[in-house]
Amino acid sequence: MRSRSIGFIIFVLALVACSKDKFETKPSLKIKEVNTSDVQPGEKLIVTLEYTDKEGDLAGGRVGVAKQVSNCPTSDFVDTVKYSISGDVPPTKNQKGQIDISLPYIFINPFCSFDDSAHFKFWITDKGGHQSDTVTTGLIIVRKS
């Protein structure tokens, strides 16, 4: 009886582990790396995103970026125009990869006379119009020059 219980537990664990890598029509997105949490004037904020997509139709899609700040509301923005996914990503089923989003200081600089404390949010929309969930960085300080 005990060996059946152990066998059943192993089966359930294997089933749960296999379902974590399941590809879906809606792209999935997660933050793999952020190059800094303190952006100085003239520097870039580079966020590396990992994605999966069942249809592999991200080429021609868009990456949305939003900056949300707590102390300088005129610095907030949402942009889905500047970041498109290169057409040289060949469409393949069950596609997995990464995208580096480079945000130059001039694009994210504070519009107040003091430093920004910001969170950056990202989402991806594939060519078929399917949008991923939104992922958010930790707190990023953008220094005023």
List the helices and strands and how they pair.
Elements: H1 2-19, E1 28-34, E2 38-39, E3 44-53, E4 62-69, E5 77-79, E6 95-104, H2 105-108, E7 116-125, E8 135-136, E9 140-142
Parallel strand pairs: 2-9
Antiparallel strand pairs: 1-3, 3-6, 4-5, 4-7, 7-8, 7-9
Explain this structure.
By secondary structure, the protein is of the alpha+beta class. The chain has a single domain (22-142), classed as Immunoglobulins (Immunoglobulin-like), CATH 2.60.40.10. Helix content is 15%, strand content 38%. It has two helices and nine strands; from the N terminus they run H-E-E-E-E-E-E-H-E-E-E. Strands 2, 4, 5, 7, 8 and 9 form a six-stranded mixed beta sheet that branches. A three-stranded antiparallel beta sheet has the order 1-3-6.
Largest sheet: 6 strands, mixed
CATH architecture: Sandwich
Q: What is the straight-line distance between the termini?
A: 70 Å
Unreliable stretches covering 5 or more consecutive residues: 11-20
CATH class category name: Mainly Beta
Overall shape: it is elongated
- DSSP strand content: 35-45%
The class by helix and strand makeup works out as: alpha+beta
Kindly state the mean pLDDT as a whole number?
81
| CATH fold-level label | Immunoglobulin-like
Give the strand tally. 9
Total separate domains = 1
Percentage of residues in helical conformation:
10-25%
CATH homology group: Immunoglobulins
